[in-house]
Write a structure and sequence with these properties.
single chain; 418 residues; mainly alpha; 15 helices; 76% helix; 0% strand
Length: 418
């Protein structure tokens, strides 16, 4: 189905759930990932003090976040092919079980290295939830309808980073940082129970694929040789890299540069709130305007924000209010891009949705980790490294989209680009 003639229908593939419950369940399992990421932000200084022997450099605390993402990115390589072979439910439930067990390990971690191992396992577990959630949506919907469903799910999913740091700070008021992992584990168990009871298998036996190496490699080849899929995966990875860099260094920026102290989660929430609004707006507009018009406009805004932030930092005029406004615009434009980039990448891959989702997720996450870590580890007490990295990664994304679309931005296509 193209992005200009999608039918307005509701799939029967997710019965017994109705449409609202389906969106909420998809969002709740996807939310395992950002919840595990962003609840940790206020706890990083406490973790540093707890493992002061192992953590000598403040930038090394970012490993609590980046190690989680490494597990998340690497795990996606295998989750898709497994789900295409055995179905969505067993892989999803297995990943959520790994997530819960990793939470126990994190709570009991006697060293920083053990904590990083637990974080990698948590990332591995959430790789299943992200891949399978996207695959389930693709099993049930296509075209603009898929983009609309993804936007509604993303609206809930993206709301999590808004409240997660404040939620983590609230946990720290009543217990130590290990209590955050207890909360994460309990949420994982709740999401697992809901999925066991209500989420059906959406991949029919007749459409399952072999795990023979030749078949898996063929599916990988079909994915990475598709201009539209690979191009939008690389572009998404570039813009996600800037977002990861922002998250990695957020605690240092707000407490070290702007001296907000315990008010840091409130500032982070104010910035991230625009992303949830963008998801709702995108869901309303994508059926009329199309995925390309919205995502290309959002990418242009992203580049403009990056340029203004870099220029302001170079001129030495980047006070907290201006930084907050620019960061909020960054989050808003990201929210208008991410669901559409995903839908555009997945559009040609309905016959191998699990494997394609797996590879798409790995490419975007690993590029994002590489870019985000490079920028985050360059933090020097100023916003210059972030501003430069944000600008360059956004220019790279814009250049990739221009190549994919052969210079035709904002114009819908009647069929996916091969």
């Amino acid at each position: 189905m193209s992005d200009v003639n999608a039918d307005d229908w509701v799939s029967a593939g997710h019965r017994p759930m109705g449409f609202p419950e389906f969106v909420v369940v998809i969002a709740s399992i996807m939310a395992l990932n950002p919840l595990a990421m962003d609840m940790m932000l206020p706890a990083l200084p406490d973790i540093g003090r707890a493992f002061s022997i192992s953590v000598a450099n403040a930038n090394h605390l970012q490993l609590v976040l980046s190690t989680f993402l490494i597990g998340f990115g690497a795990g996606q390589f295998v989750m898709g092919p497994l789900s295409d072979r055995f179905g969505r439910r067993p892989v999803l439930l297995g990943g959520m079980a790994v997530y819960a067990v990793a939470g126990v390990l994190a709570v009991a971690a006697p060293s920083f290295e053990t904590l990083l191992l637990a974080r990698a396992l948590q990332g591995l577990g959430t790789s299943a939830t992200r891949v399978i959630a996207t695959s389930i949506v693709r099993d049930c919907y296509a075209g603009r309808r898929m983009a609309s469903v993804m936007s509604l799910a993303m609206m809930i999913f993206i709301a999590v980073p808004v409240i997660a740091p404040s939620f983590g700070q609230a946990v720290l008021l009543v217990t130590q940082w290990r209590g955050i992992f207890v909360v994460l584990m309990l949420y994982g168990v709740l999401a697992l129970a809901w999925s066991v009871l209500r989420l059906p298998e959406t991949l029919p036996e007749s459409e399952r694929r072999s795990l023979a190496p030749a078949d898996v490699l063929s599916a990988f080849r079909q994915t990475i040789t598709n201009r539209q899929t690979l191009g939008y995966a690389m572009a998404a990875g570039s813009v996600i890299g800037a977002l990861f860099a922002f998250v990695f260094s957020a605690q240092q920026v707000f407490t070290g540069i702007y001296h907000l102290g315990h008010y840091f989660p409130l500032a982070f929430a104010a910035i991230a709130a625009g992303t949830a609004g963008a998801g709702f707006l995108n869901a309303k507009l994508v059926g009329r305007l199309g995925m390309r018009v919205i995502s290309h406009g959002a990418l242009t805004l992203y580049a403009l924000v990056a340029g203004v932030m870099l220029l302001s930092e170079i001129l030495g005029v980047l006070p907290l209010p201006l930084f907050m406004v620019l960061s909020a615009l960054m989050m808003f434009s990201f929210g208008m891009m991410v669901a559409n980039f995903t839908a555009l990448a997945m559009e040609p891959q309905g016959h191998i949705a699990g494997t394609a989702s797996s590879l798409y997720g790995s490419i975007t996450t690993l590029i994002g980790i590489a870019v985000g870590t490079a920028i985050g580890q360059s933090f020097d007490g100023t916003l210059l490294p972030f501003s430069v990295g944000f600008f360059l990664s956004t220019l790279a994304a814009l250049a990739i989209v221009l190549v994919v679309e052969k210079g035709r931005l904002f114009k819908p296509h009647h069929r996916p680009i091969a």
